[in-house]
Amino acid sequence: MIYLDHAATAFPRSRAVVAAVEQALVHGGSPGRSGHRLSRWSDEQVWRARERLARLVGAAAPENVTFALNATAALNTIINHFAKIGGVVLISAFEHNSVTRPIHAARARGLQSPRREDLAVASRAVIESVVGITPAIAR
Ligand SMILES: Cc1ncc(COP(=O)(O)O)c(C=O)c1O
């Protein structure tokens, strides 16, 4: 999972964000809801965003990019999915409530704590992936 949380920490907002919001308010319609000019324009903007985000995170296809209402809704969806399929979720001691609450709720519903061996494997995978993406971030 790649967790992008620009809005919570960035101030002042970049001019590009302000321009995009203004453009959406002036030109926006409901994407994919009709053949109206404003709807088609909005649909195209959403598709472009999917394409660019897919390239950024190395997703297989733009269709694999999902937008959520906010970070809390996205995190709940993902964490509950992993809890359901039995994946290992590693968190630090510094997580936002939007991460810790769904994990504690899943544990209350019976989600097992990971076995020590699973933690070791998952920790190695995280370290390798962080080492792997460092040069890309530096560019
Ligand atoms: C680090 C972090 N994660 C998640 C959230 C939750 O974001 P949202 O308000 O979009 O649900 C916040 C909110 O401030 C946050 O600071």
Highlighted features:
single chain; 139 residues; mainly alpha; 2 domains; 6 helices; 63% helix; 0% strand; disordered C terminus; binds pyridoxal-5'-phosphate
Could you write a compact summary of the structure shown?
This protein is mainly α and 139 residues long. 63% of the residues lie in helices and 0% in strands.
Could you explain the architecture of this structure?
With 139 residues, the protein is an all-alpha fold. It has two domains: 6-64, no CATH class; 71-138, no CATH class. Helix content is 63%, strand content 0%. Bound molecules: pyridoxal-5'-phosphate.
N-C termini distance: 21 Å
- Regions with pLDDT < 50 over 5+ consecutive residues? 134-139
| Residues in helices, as a percent range | 55-70%
Which compounds are bound in this model? pyridoxal-5'-phosphate
Number of domains: 2
Q: Report the β-strand fraction as a percent range.
A: under 5%
- Main sheet specs: none
Count of DSSP strands: 0
What's the gyration radius in Å? Answer: 19 Å
**Series of secondary-structure elements, N-terminal to C-terminal:** HHHHHH
* Quaternary structure state of the chains depicted: single chain
Global mean pLDDT = 83
Q: Label the overall shape.
A: elongated
Quickly count the helices.
6
Structural class: mainly alpha
